[in-house]
Amino acid sequence: MSAQFRGTRPVAAGLAAAGAAPTIRPMTVFDLDAVLSIEQRAYSFPWSRGNFIDSLASGYGAWVLETSRPAESPRPVTAEPPRLLGYYLAMPGVEELHLLNITVAPDCQGQGHGRWMLGHLQQQAVAQSAPTLWLEVRAHNLRAQALYLRCGFETVGRRKAYYPAGQGQREDALVMRKALAQAVDPAVEGSA
Ligand SMILES: CC(C)(COP(=O)(O)OP(=O)(O)OC[C@H]1O[C@@H](n2cnc3c(N)ncnc32)[C@H](O)[C@@H]1OP(=O)(O)O)[C@@H](O)C(=O)NCCC(=O)NCCS
């Protein structure tokens, strides 16, 4: 993993309002059991452990969002360990980042975590002088498309029969792109 993906930081204050502030940090192989547990619940065609290991070994940007305690509140001995809320992985290219996977745990969806992680991705892209973001999304995944459109992506193409769809069927992918003009603040992107 490249040096610029190191470090942790608290997530937007809006997300922390309900209690412990989520934190984003680089994914490691030690996260993979929890990551795969979410992946297998979130998708009909989940990534394999090997897909994640290959991405980590390739040095792609890989981040996990997890619960944590506010810094000013010492963790009691009986406190639960941090719990994974979601994750994303992005492959660097020439002046671009390609979002490969973004997932929020099914029981934590609809709380702004996906939007916040997209804001973080955009901040990473700006920091790496990668002004264009790319992604593919299943043509029937309207919820994810709504998130991407909400975050300023536009649909620029369609890949026919790109994804497996079961029973020998295939599903098209929409290709979406966002051109980044300036620095992105995840706290702003992640706010409602
Ligand atoms: C897609 C996904 C990452 C979105 O994350 P999330 O944390 O649930 O989304 P957020 O709470 O940040 O919502 C952001 C936007 O997504 C859209 N959205 C969220 N929940 C939605 C729902 N139930 N129906 C329609 N749109 C929805 C809205 O545009 C929303 O913006 P708004 O709150 O201003 O209306 C998450 O639902 C997920 O992991 N889904 C399964 C895996 C997946 O499909 N990943 C994407 C693969 S391309």
Précis, in short:
The protein is an alpha+beta fold and 192 residues long. It is built from 6 helices and 8 strands, in the order E-H-E-H-H-E-E-E-H-E-H-E-E-H.
SSE sequence, one letter per element:
EHEHHEEEHEHEEH
Shape: globular
Strand order of the largest sheet: 1-2-3-4-5-6-8-7
Q: What is the CATH fold-level name? A: Aminopeptidase
List keywords for this structure.
alpha+beta, Aminopeptidase, eight-stranded mixed β-sheet, 6 helices, disordered N terminus
Mind sketching the topology for me?
Elements: E1 9-10, H1 13-16, E2 23-26, H2 32-42, H3 49-57, E3 61-66, E4 84-93, E5 96-104, H4 113-127, E6 132-138, H5 142-150, E7 154-166, E8 169-179, H6 186-189
Parallel strand pairs: 5-6
Antiparallel strand pairs: 1-2, 2-3, 3-4, 4-5, 6-8, 7-8
Bound molecules: coenzyme A.
The site of coenzyme A has 19 residues, from strand 5, helix 4 and helix 5.
Walkthrough of the structure:
- This protein is α+β, with helices and mostly antiparallel strands and 192 residues long.
- The protein has a single domain (3-189), classed as Aminopeptidase (3-Layer(aba) Sandwich), CATH 3.40.630.
- The protein contains six helices and eight strands.
- The chain has helices spanning 13-16, 32-42, 49-57, 113-127, 142-150, 186-189; strands at 9-10, 23-26, 61-66, 84-93, 96-104, 132-138, 154-166, 169-179.
- Strands 1-2-3-4-5-6-8-7 form an eight-stranded mixed β-sheet, sandwiched between helices.
- The longest helix is centred in the middle third of the chain and has 15 residues, at 113-127.
- The radius of gyration is 17 Å and the shape is globular.
- The two termini are 31 Å apart.
- Mean pLDDT is 86; it is low at 1-7.
- It binds coenzyme A.
- Coenzyme A binds next to strand 5, helix 4 and helix 5.
